[in-house]
Amino acid sequence: MTALHPGSGQIFLGSTLGDIDFHRRPSNFLVSFLFHAAVITLIWLLARSVTPVFHGGRDARAWRAELPIILAGTGGGSGGGQDVLPASRGALPRARPDEQFVPPSAVSINDSPALPMEPTVLMAADAVPPQTGPLGDPLSSVTGPLSNGPGTGGGIGNGCCGGLGRGEGLGFGDGQQGLYPAGRNGVTTPRVIYDPEPAYSDAARAAKMQGTVTLWLVVGTDGRPRGVRVQKGLGLGLDEKAIAAVETWKFEPSMLNGKPVAVAINVEVNFRLF
Question: Rounded to whole angstroms, what are the CA distances from 48 to 39, 43, 52, 231?
Fold first, then answer.
């Protein structure tokens, strides 16, 4: 450690060092020292209070209370084969939350397909219990000849398109396409409880890109997001950053009659530069 000059302490006492006369009062030094210390402390406190915000500039606690969820669908589906008879009663096909390759059908159209594939409906895999038997609408009262119903677009029912029931879409039941109706019909809305912020990509930061990425996902009964995909993107790597962040989120799952259920929702991830 470097030793102080024997007379260096005299500088702060307003005395002399060698041939230099400082003529300073101790009170002036004390006032200056306290002023600069206060300024440094104020700057430090301001720096702590300013953090990068990617969720619309809101406080983290407020953001948790106002999660920007866009509800997606009411758990419905329908279809049909333009049959004269109403859809016949039967079992549901296997439910899948991601995509449908073959719609359900009560009446076999091709008994020898070149590439056999299992019919499915687009719903959470645990939305309905597994069933066996001929496919059909389990809510139908028709037990007579097998029929896909008067609807169109494939599937079973009196609507459209590729699902099963009296709604619309690739799912099952009344209403528009979706899984369980988050926030409706007795189903609660999932609530985020762990939400790490997304990182900015280097390309987006260099281009000063700002905006909102909208993602579609299924919140499972365990509160984990599944099947996250982009509904509306920004590019420059921000879409991938948003997906990577949301895939680590944790929700309190939606509840129906005291039991957790899977729902499909959209979430908005906002990117802002400061």
Answer: 14, 9, 11, 35
Gap between the Cα atoms of 244 and 230, Å rounded: 12
Q: Is the pTM of this model over 0.70?
A: no
Model pLDDT, residue 220: 82
Segment (H or E) for 43: helix 26-49
Which tokens in the block code for residue 22? 């400082």
Given a contact cutoff of 8 angstroms between Cβ atoms, the answer to whether 102 and 135 are in contact is no
| Biggest alpha carbon–alpha carbon distance for the chain | 117
User: Which residues contact residue 56 at a Cβ distance below 8 angstroms, ignoring those fewer than 6 apart?
Assistant: 63, 68, 268, 270, 272
Q: Are 246 and 228 in contact (CB under 8 A)?
A: yes
Give the 3-state secondary structure of residue 62.
helix
Do the Cβ atoms of 236 and 207 come closer than 8 Å? yes
Radius of gyration of the chain measured on its C-alpha atoms: 32
Tokens for 239, please give them.
């879409």
Q: What is the mean pLDDT of residues 144-163?
A: 89
Q: What is the pLDDT of residue 176?
A: 53
Instruction: List phi, psi (to 5°) of 17.
Output: -135, 110
DSSP annotation of 161: S
CB 270 within 8 A of CB 198: no
Which amino acid, one-letter code, is at 241? K
Block residue for tokens 């969720």 = 55
Instruction: Give CA–CA dist 149/163, Å, rounded.
Output: 12
